[in-house]
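User: Sequence for MARVEL domain-containing protein below. Tokens please.
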Amino acid sequence: MAFGRRNNAHVAPTTDYGAPAVRSNRLHRPLLALNHALHLASSLIVLGISAYFIHDYENTTHLRYWVAIASVSTFFYLPTLVLPAVKRYKGYLAPLAWVLSYLWLTGFIFAVQDYEYNGGCAVNSPRFVNKCSLKRTVEAFTFLAFFTNVVGTLLEARLWDVQRFKHTRVAPADDREKHHGAGGAAPGVDAPVAHQTV
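Assistant: Structure tokens for MARVEL domain-containing protein:
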């Protein structure tokens, strides 16, 4: 018995600095799935409106960019609706969400330039088409897609961080003695001498 603790007791996992390891929250995975669903819905709305503009009106560079980024997001985010429910999933999509957040930020900047400046919404993307409600919808949902990517990056990174320490534990003193001899040190290495206080 060392310091009032049983040798065979389960020791809580700790980080490298000795602090208690982080624990997972029960709402973490459902929040992650909800965030992915919201991002997927935003991507589909941007994709649908932009594809409608390309099909029926003039094809501009920003419309093509929105269709491209929304298509990529839809392709990658379809499986993410079920990934948080899988226990073995540990937040591996954090880098992808981080990269896509920059692409969506660029798309939002393009939407603001087209629909708020440079002549207003009736003049740009597509040119001289007075469908400002649809254009502002694209602007709003590009921002929502960007925001959900940022939140998704944070949630995915937190999930990865939590899962790193989930199944680790510190070996009790008895286990160290079994593997390294009576002193607990490796063979051929002297065990450290404890300082005695008076």
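The CA atoms of residues 9 and 179 lie 18 Å apart.
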